[in-house]
Amino acid sequence: MMRKILLFFLMISSTLIAQNTVKVDLSSPNATIYTHLYFLQPDSYEPEKAAASIYGYEGEEAQDIALKLKKILDGKGLKVDFSKVPTDKNYSDTIGYKIGHRYVLFPYQIPQIYVEKIGEKWYYSKETASQVNTLYRSIYPWYSEKLQQVIPNFGHYKLFKIELWQYLGLLLLITICVFLFFVLRKIIYYTLRKLQFKILKKSNKNINLALKKLTRPIVLLILIWLLKKIVPSFLLDLDINAALFLALNIMTTVFWIYVFLKLVKVFMSIYADFAESTHNKLDDQLVPILQNFLTGVVIFLGILKLLTLFGVDPAAVIAGASIGGIAVALASQDTVKNLIGTIMIFVDKPFHIGDWIEAGEVVGTVETVGFRSTTVRAADTSVYQIPNSTLSEMVVNNKGLRAYRRYTTNLGLRYDTPPELVEAFVKGVRKIIELHPDTREEAFNVEFTGFGDSALLILVNVYFTALDWSVEQAAKHSLHLSILKFAKELGVDFAFPSTTVMIEQFPEKKGLALNYDVENKRIQQIIDNLK
């Protein structure tokens, strides 16, 4: 009875095993790739079945291509995630550069390896098969196979899936990399300094410091490239290779981010020196804005690259970022408008830092131009924050771009001033303006322009050469004093608002009258003595 029961279970188990036996299946991308890799595993090693996935080749040649394909993937540490490989028999690649029934296993690492539908079955493409030997030689150097032949048997003893000779080889490789690090660091720094002097023909402390910090990551990138070239030769386990190459790729991305951040710093240091050498102070304000923008771009692209290392599709990330960007833009339209206004201000340059401007009701000196707004300090030292979107659409009167500062005023002489003294006063004021060191002597006006309510009006229109507001006020001060001194010496008085009452036939009452000296010789001598 016991024997019958055992025989029954043996038949059941054999039936289940027979049902679970993997057969060659080329009906879809998933089935073809699984067939290829499954029949090359140690527990199910049947290379003739794996070779069925190679189109256009037969026998040992097809088996050799299938084996090399697996070694290429193993050497690069590329593990196929079958949950992401399509099982659709009519799968069509609609996002690749060649639209058709094809599937690329690792489009960003090895785009040359892909399967395609031929007839009703899926195979590794002819192009893939034709490039296998080239890919294999690029991953496994000429010494790889010879290295396997000279290793004694005890060298193949395994500890944590790594053979003894592989431990020794990795230790030797790390030692060589440490030695190369110190040698290459000096060579790279020397090369960077030579390029700096050749291109820029100058140096400063910030650039030297940035180049010194730039040297180390560049050397490390070279050493990582060397490791990627040599590590496949050790024929490590696929899981170990996958973890190792993931770590190397992460380090490569991080170091490249660091390198580009330092390059941004070097570039902005050069631009800052250039901005300081120009009279345009708006360029100085652009330095931190441009540096923040470039830094953000580098970090964004670096994070995008890091996400792809973990299997995230960059197209999906960019699409998500675009949708998110549109949502953020719609939610913050004012911020986007201000950013566009900032760009227009830097492109058009309607004013510079330090310019005195009039923009609507705001009058003052431009202090800063930021991402969102511009700071203007008024004459009473109060500060205005004007959104750049508003400022870019306003009529801006830039006083700082004037060639001269115009000053216009009216001088009022008493109505009883004799015509001779009025003429002498006009001539004298003209000469004062011509002799003044801060006025434009070839363009001014001093004329008797009319009769005011209480005075004879003398127009004074003058242009000061000093553009600074405080210097202009000092120039006005000296001009006014010179005119006052001349008027006193000439003997003319300035009028002030008054009313004259004429009283006729009133005994012993006389009007107030000044005694003006209109002697021509005296007047001419006073004018000639002006300095």
Concise structural overview:
Residues 409-494 form the Mechanosensitive ion channel MscS C-terminal domain. This protein is α+β, with helices and mostly antiparallel strands. It has helices at 2-20, 29-38, 47-50, 59-75, 126-139, 143-150, 164-199, 205-230, 238-277, 282-309, 314-331, 333-348, 388-391, 419-435, 469-490, 520-528; strands spanning 102-106, 110-118, 121-124, 158-159, 162-163, 356-359, 362-369, 373-377, 383-387, 396-398, 405-413, 445-451, 456-464.
Domain tally: 4
What is the end-to-end distance?
142 Å
Shape: elongated
Estimated helix fraction:
40-55%
How is the biggest beta sheet arranged? 5 strands, antiparallel
Helix-strand pattern: HHHHEEEHHEEHHHHHHEEEEHEEHEEHH
The low-confidence parts are: 6-10, 12-20
Number of helices: 16
Radius of gyration: 44 Å
Q: Strand arrangement, largest sheet?
A: 9-8-7-6-10
